[in-house]
Amino acid sequence: MKNIFSLFILLIYYNHLLFAQCVNGVGPTSTIDSNVESVTLIGDVGSINYVGCPGIIGIEDQTSLSTTLAAGGSYTISVQFGTCGGNYSGLGEVWIDFNGNQTFEPTESLGTWSGIPPTSISVFSFIVPSTVTNLPVKLRVMQKEGSGSLPLDPCASFTWGSVVDFTINFTGGIDCSTYIGNNETDPIIVNNLPYADNHNNSVCYSNDNPVYNSADVYYLVTPTNGTQQITASLCGSNFDTYISAYDTQGNNLAFNDDFCGPQSEITIDVQNLDSVYIIVEGWGLETGDYILNIYENTSSITSIIQNTNISLHPNPAQHSFIINGVNDADVSISIYNVNGKTVKRIFNYKGNEIIIDSLPNGIYFVEIMIENIIFTKKLIIQ
Ligand SMILES: [Ca+2]
Ligand SMILES: [Ca+2]
Ligand SMILES: [Ca+2]
Ligand SMILES: [Ca+2]
After folding, report:
1. Mind listing the pLDDT tens digit for each residue in 279-301?
2. Distance of CA 121 to the CA centre of its chain
3. Which CATH fold would you assign to the domain 27-171?
4. What fold does the segment set 179-296 form as a domain?
5. Which of 56, 68, 160, 208 could form a disulfide with 183 if both were Cys (CB 3.0 to 4.6 A apart)?
């Protein structure tokens, strides 16, 4: 699990970059003056009846206050933008993270306010999307004193004002308990090839493989004895996909972004593997309907594989290495670090020494492409 672990570190890093303001320093740095004075939301089960003041620095965590809304239902939320002290002009906004991705998108805004307290209560009407899942999400109410423009940044930090978070539960939405394959502990099991799955990763799936922050779906493929190569293809899918494969130790075996247009396909050497994780996700944040086909690769290229004993020498390597067993074919080489970043590329490789002096010590993956078949070998530089 070593590499998956390092990818988790990467995930934290990427999330930090994307939501940096939401991780650190959201909300006011002062407790005085402008503040949300009240929030009222009457749902189907329970209601939120919040009274503000005194002010709180940062995010005021009121997530113990919750109400339950029905998918597709119409509701109103009443907010008194106001003050715990003096009256100063400011701006306000309310969001519900309807799609549960821990981000308040502009489309998830319920309404905005601007004025100088005291002003009348703001009443925002909204309809819960029918596509919500039956999982709790956050409601955020923000008031920011001073000048600026609407809409507000839901991760903004400022001197005076308030940011209050509540919990919203949904009923009648999509039941995620029936969805499997979200991560490597709960993969979709594939025991027979060929295998085909028409699937959708836009609801109920979260980001577990952090190559991209898109939601991902895990398959665990156990080929029958004697299978030499399998191909996993997303060709024909409806969005810009990315596919990768790992062994059960967490070592990356192969990955591909664009093979058939923006869709992805990999071929993996499985002769020495009991089972293989295939992970489907989108480029960037893309999700949608996809078609996954996994089949035993029995193309004529197989003869090359049978006759070729590809190896890296020396491995571990210090200054350079060569790839044995590839001399007669059209070969291109890509070397990736454990974060999946390309650090070296060689086209038309003819068995010569590959200099690696400039690469830091560590684990790398050498992707060897021979006439569209990809082999991945682990290289240690020390
Ligand atoms: Ca959201
Ligand atoms: Ca996932
Ligand atoms: Ca992902
Ligand atoms: Ca792609």
Report:
1. 999 999 899 999 999 999 765 44
2. 38
3. Coagulation Factor XIII; Chain A, domain 1 (2.70.50)
4. Jelly Rolls (2.60.120)
5. 208
